[in-house]
Amino acid sequence: MRQFNTTPTHNIDAEINWSRRHLLDIDSFSRDEFNYVTNTALAMQEILTRPIKKVPALRGKTIVTLFYEPSTRTRGSFELAAKHLSADVVNLSPPASSITKGENLRDTLRTLEVMGADTIILRHHMAGAPHFAARHAKSCIINAGDGWHAHPTQTLLDIYTIQKYKKNVEGLKIVILGDSRHSRVARSNISGLTRMGAYITLCGPPTLLPFSIGRNDSVQSMLKVELDINKALDGADVVIALRIQKERQKAGLIPGIEEYISGYQLTGHRLKQAKPDAIVMHPGPVNEDIEISMEVVRCSQSVIDEQVANGIAIRMAILYLINRGNG
């Protein structure tokens, strides 16, 4: 079993001026903020090793998960994170609520606030929905994924996972393989990982790559696009494979799944182009033997299961930091 590096990237006791009331994206995060979140997650991870995995940090707080899209990993880890911190948790599913009767997002937010929601964790199919919520809600808002726009806690847990294996993100070559044009995970990772000093290579069919790679010159200098998977993987420290959605084929963006597999599936043979100690990541759920072979999923370089586990600690850290300053 690969061993985590449990040394904090800076002194965990050193406070920063955490003033964020919401977590909508990570585009304005500083390196100190990224490190502060991941170091706080290290402390949360210690709680998860105890026989009784619960502390009273958020006792008396009410956390609501409001997911307009299906989710297993994100929703489940937020719920567990809140319960480990002793918060009261309410899960709201649009199909089982008044949303099906035409209630709009603003009305739903108002209802939840009247019910005493301190924090609302929102996943929505429309990009920008969490920003709208933050403008109209008194509760703290956490973005759990909005359209193709952002998935900030996924990026935070990815950075946390990389730091545990590589200690420092700065200077690493990270390959994002697959459909980065339509991926909120890719967009947030590009923003977060380049802010942490990593060099990003995007690889995939031309129809699944971004039309542009950002307007920020500093970000552009740390990004490149490579159509050849073997060249992209050459010397990589980290490989992040993205899930291929079937609707991309229906939209004509790829000729077919077999063609994608032939050109871009991460296989054991192709992984040999990366560094011997490279790690393999995936935001999940994995399409078995499509974007990544099961041989790679199960290999010693895969940290996909650790990502799922790390999501709980990261989301505990975010819930704690946001509620600590708002209560």
Structure in words:
The N and C termini lie far apart (41 Å). By secondary structure, the protein is an alpha/beta fold. The strands form two sheets. It has a five-stranded parallel sheet with strand order 7-6-5-8-9. Strands 2-1-3-4 form a four-stranded parallel sheet, sandwiched between helices. About 2% of the residues have low confidence. It has 13 helices and nine strands.
Give the topology string: H per helix, E per strand. HEHEHEHEHEHEHEHEHHHEHH
In CATH's first tier, which class of the largest domain applies? Alpha Beta
pLDDT below 50 for ≥5 consecutive residues: which ranges? 8-14
State the domain count: 2
Please give the radius of gyration in angstroms.
20 Å
β-strand percent reads 5-15%
Helix and strand content put the structural class at alpha/beta
> What does the main sheet amount to?
5 strands, parallel
- What best-fitting shape do the alpha-carbon axes yield? globular
Q: Assign a percent range to the helix content.
A: 25-40%
* CATH architecture designation of the largest domain: 3-Layer(aba) Sandwich
Mean pLDDT: 90
Report the count of strand segments. Answer: 9
- Please identify which CATH superfamily of the largest domain we are dealing with: Aspartate/ornithine carbamoyltransferase
Total helical elements: 13
Core attributes:
alpha/beta; Rossmann fold; 2 domains; five-stranded parallel sheet; 13 helices; 9 strands
